[in-house]
Every structure is written in C-alpha cells, then in structure tokens.
Amino acid sequence: MREVEDTASSRGASEVSEISSEVALFGKYEIGKLLGCGAFAKVYHARNVDTGQSVAIKAVSKKKVYKGGFMAHVKREIAIMHRLRHPNIVKLIEVLATKTKIYFVMEFAKGGELFTRVSRGRFSEDLSRRYFQQLISAVRFCHSRGVYHRDLKPENLLLDENWNLKITDFGLSAVTDQIQPDGLLHTLCGTPAYVAPEILAKKGYDGAKIDVWSCGIVLYVLHAGYLPFNDPNVMAMYRRIYKGEFRFPKWTSPDLRRFISRLLDTNPESRITVDEIFNDSWFKKGYKETKFHADDFELKGYSTGTQSATNCLNAFDIISFSTGFDLSGLFNEADFSVRREQFVSEERPERIILRIEEEFRRIENVKARRRKERGVYLEGQDSNFILTVNVHQLTESLVVVEIRRREVNVGLTGDIWEDKLRPKLFDIIYEPETMNVSE
C-alpha cells in the first residue's frame, strides 16, 4: 500500500470502527491500527483472538472494486497468493467477506517496507546481495508456478521480524493462461521507474524477463540508494530506460557492475535469465538454497495430477467453492432475485444435466438451451422461473454443480427448486460428513 498514515487521524479511527463490527462477526480478529491505503483497499494490523498471532488484513471495498473494473485483478490476486507458499512471499491465510467488503487475512511483516529501510541509506554490497538472493529465490518460485509479478519494487517488498524479505502485492500479476498466441503478454502495467524497455515498445513481452529487469532496478537501488533511471519528466525517463542510459556509483565493484549490466540489458533476448542468475559468481556467494516440501505450498484438497487443466477447476475456482473462500457475487452488481447453490456429485456431468432437465420437465413446460459443453439454461412456463446449471470438474471422480435460479413471481420463491426439484435429485448429490478444501 502506497500511503502510510503516520498519525491516528479521525479518518483512520472511523475506518477502524467501520470494519471492527464486521470483523467481530467473524469472532476471530481484533483490528488494530491502519497500516496503509491504496485506491480501493486499506491494510490494518490485526490480532487473532484465539492464538494472539499478528496478521495484516487487507480490506477491499466491493463497491470500488466493481466501479473501478478491478474484479479480475482481485480474483487473480486471491488465486495467485493462495497457490504461492515460499519463505520470501507473504502468505495468504484466508479470505473473509461481508456484504460490503472482502478481507485478505495475510501474514504480518513486522519490519515494514524495504523501501522505508533503504530510504534511510544505501546498503552494503553484501547486504544488497543477501536481499537480492531472497528476492530471486521467490521470483524463481513464482515463475515455476506460472506467475509473473510485473510490479516488483522496494515498496512491494516487506521485511519480517527477522529482517527477511517478503514479496507482496500480486494485484498486477499475470499467469500463464493470459499469454497470447504469440507467446507474449501485452497488458501495459508496472511502475514507471521500474518498467522494462520492451513494455514501452508495446510489442508484447515475456513476463519472466520483465521481472528480471525489475529485480535489476531493485538491486541497483539497494546498492546505490537511488534509482538508475530517474527524471522529473516521465517521457525523458522513458527515453533513458529505452536506451539503457544509466551510470554506476563510484563504489560499485567490477563484478557487481557486470552483473547489474546483464540484469538491465535493454535487449530481452540477451538479458540474463533467472536460471543464469543462479549460476553467476557474484550471486552465488554465500547463497543457501531454500528447501521445499510439496505440502508447504499446495492448495489442500486440490489434485495436481495429470488431469487436463481445461476440464478441472483452477485455483480460484477451488477457493470459491471452499469454506471461508466463497466469493460468489462479490464481483458483480447485487441481484437479490438470483439465488445460488452448489452441490458435489459423483455422476458424470452429462448425466447430471440430463437428469435436472428431465425432472424440471415433469414439473412444468420448459424451454431448454444448452450452455457450452457442461451447462444448460432452463426457463419455466411464462418465464416465471429461470434455472441455469453449470458443472465443473473438481477431481477425476467428483464434480461441483453450480445452480443459479431466478423466480419472477416473488410469492413462489424457493418453492420450485427447494420443494419440487432438489428433493428429486437426492441420489446424485454427494454429501460427505465434511468437505473443506481450504487451509
């Protein structure tokens, strides 16, 4: 978050008061001071009332998310953060929601922003290397999971109580399924002083390579104490970035000059890669490899076998169907005439759709229209009842059936589905004693 409030202003107090009553409903978190704020979110320090653990809670306004067109950003940020488990990445603990807000409950980084620390004075070469090693370790992990941050800078790098680095703010991140047929990303994003020259060229870019460029800017800032490309005139700064015009401070060692020059190579084809970074002599000095276990970062309850990604739910879909992560309806205008329900089944998707269609026809005359491969739109007589069914593959043997229904005649609300249709489907609804795929 960009703007940190230094004093307990009346506005800050009212904001805390505004969400305290909502959080009390969760019976879980005690809200503390406001840590910072952005365009549509505010971050608070909070305490888990049961464990005493400090957490950071990012409160996102649903109204601002919708009006600002940030629905996809918030969805993607949740999905990305929940799939990334690394010692140098801020951990998403859970997501909670009320009628007005979405809450990201995250690991609390007690040391604050790396930007604050480096603004007090440049780091030694050894300390710069230590933080760069932690940064690249986390970036390599992100890339291995198909995630490209696209906005790496000291303001988005936090420090924990042991002064270890933690990457945060994945709101501008991209995932591999956003790559276009030419194999590149095309969305223009990032912070001006950290943006790679190929983004300025507007011809598409490799997400991994622009992250490497940004890491090069971060390393330069840590070591020098100022930006390599900086000018009050943004267009003049962009011209310098595009040409790669910068100077090293006099205290920069020959090895570090060589290394940063490879990071800030304006040609993405010859720019050093993450794998090559790990083999560089300057980088390797004192580096200790981070060891992982699969359980540290896999989404519990989510199969990562050989199933086709097109047939199975992605990370956000899994989250949206799990306890504590049901974000349905948070990213669209409220329509209280539409009701939503899910159930799990072991039946084949085609069989489920046919069965619902058959049972509906027995109740009244219906108009049916297939929706893509695993969905159906059903409209009752005189359009008094509309039912849409979509089936999502959860695992090889289980599917999630999503039902959305709308009844025009308010007096009949719930009767057709609850009293007439759903009871007929009892044999295809799978109801285990517990089903919770969240952590």
Provide a compact summary of the structure.
With 439 residues, this protein is an alpha+beta fold.
Structure overview:
- The protein is of the alpha+beta class and 439 residues long.
- It has three domains: 10-108, Phosphorylase Kinase, domain 1; 113-295, Transferase(Phosphotransferase) domain 1 (Transferase(Phosphotransferase), domain 1, Orthogonal Bundle); 315-428, Kinase associated domain 1, KA1 (TATA-Binding Protein).
- Helix content is 33%, strand content 20%.
- It has 15 helices and 15 strands.
- The protein has helices at residues 10-26, 62-68, 71-83, 114-118, 125-144, 197-200, 207-224, 234-243, 254-263, 274-278, 281-284, 294-297, 315-320, 349-363, 415-421; strands at residues 29-37, 41-48, 54-61, 92-97, 101-107, 112-113, 147-148, 157-159, 165-167, 174-175, 338-345, 366-370, 375-380, 385-393, 399-407.
- A five-stranded antiparallel β-sheet has the order 1-2-3-5-4, sandwiched between helices. A five-stranded antiparallel β-sheet has the order 11-15-14-13-12, with helices on one face.
Helix-strand blueprint:
Blueprint: H1 10-26, E1 29-37, E2 41-48, E3 54-61, H2 62-68, H3 71-83, E4 92-97, E5 101-107, E6 112-113, H4 114-118, H5 125-144, E7 147-148, E8 157-159, E9 165-167, E10 174-175, H6 197-200, H7 207-224, H8 234-243, H9 254-263, H10 274-278, H11 281-284, H12 294-297, H13 315-320, E11 338-345, H14 349-363, E12 366-370, E13 375-380, E14 385-393, E15 399-407, H15 415-421
Antiparallel strand pairs: 1-2, 2-3, 3-5, 4-5, 6-8, 7-10, 8-9, 11-15, 12-13, 13-14, 14-15
EC number: 2.7.11.1
Domain Protein kinase: 29-283
Binding site for ATP: 58
